[in-house]
Amino acid sequence: MFDLKEKVELNGFKQTIHIKSKNKKNPVLLFLHGGPGVTNRHSVMTCNDDLLDDFTIVAWDQRGTTGSYWGCKKETLTIDQVTKDAAALVDYLCKKFNKKMIFTIGGSWGSLLGTNLLKCYPEKIAAFIGFGMFVNGEENEIISWEYSMEEAKKANDEKSIKILNSVGRPVMGQYKGGFSGMMKQRKVMMKYGGYSKDEKKRNYADAMLKPILKSGEYTFGELVGYILGYSFVLKKMWNEVGAVNFNKTHTKFVKPIFILDGRLDKNTPADLVEEWFNKIDAPVKELHWFEKSGHNPMSDEPVEFKKLLKEKFLSIAKKENI
User: What would the pLDDT profile of 267-291 be if each residue is shown by its tens digit?
Assistant: First the structure.
């Protein structure tokens, strides 16, 4: 087993990656985490042994968080810069494993990043999978807030109704109180299954904190970087993220794009996906729904999700000899 955690310099700033491989000749699969600023290195490395027979898997702490938190300058936290970092990492991995192209997968913010990477730097991307698919920041937050309010009213949950009224119906993807307001809305949304219908994923402690601490993936310094980094990055980048509308800017691609989305997602609402998908012009485009899944179908329906991932990516790998 090839198992390497290292710092790589991407556009002048050292960032942490973790690579696992049973066979370095296998296609490379790069995971793009969500947030922005919410690292998933622990889940990539502990939940995907079933991919290692077919892929070399790579997890990356994007600039500003976890292993890539220390020394990051606030002004460098832009969609353009993180996309350039992703492109530099793709170049690095192609050289390291002697590949002409690699595969990418991203959820939530990672779907935004992966889509932008596919549009702006497609040369070394064999194909991209997006889930928890981000489409339109303004509409995203309106639908998510309205869902939360509707569910809270159904449950006669006066406390949650008061919280949602206090942060207000979002305007251009922004809540009253900024980051704090958004986190309050997210907690109500998760409580009512907008993130996942799984009862074990109805709050941040169970869905995120406990898996991070149990994984053993992070050093103490990286855990501190995670705690400080996720709010640091989100606060700086959310205005820009909230203004994104793929319907107007990201409809033409020169490489295959696959959307594997949870039908029940109200975090990045599934309601927005099909309209955008129908506008996409790409050599291959496919939309697959996971009817029992919320924001993360790779976690909610892992067997079905990974079966489809392997089917789509490995057929391209064989055809392209990568």
Answer: 999 999 999 999 999 999 999 999 9
Name the β-bridge partners of 288.
260
Check if the beta carbon of residue 234 is closer than 8 Å to that of residue 33.
no
The tens digit of pLDDT for each residue in 158-202 reads 999 999 999 999 998 999 999 899 999 999 999 999 999 887 877
Question: Strands, DSSP E only, in 263-321?
Answer: 285-290
What are the CA-CA distances from residue 16 to residues 7, 8, 60, 145, 234 (Å)? 5, 6, 6, 34, 19
Cα three-residue angle 259-301-290, rounded to 5 degrees: 40
Q: What angle do CA 149, 300, 174 make, to 5 degrees?
A: 35
Residues 6+ apart with CB under 8 A from 95: none
Check: pTM over 0.70? Answer yes or no.
yes
| Pairwise CA distance, residues 90 & 217, whole Å | 23
Q: Alpha-carbon distance 169 to 142, whole Å?
A: 7
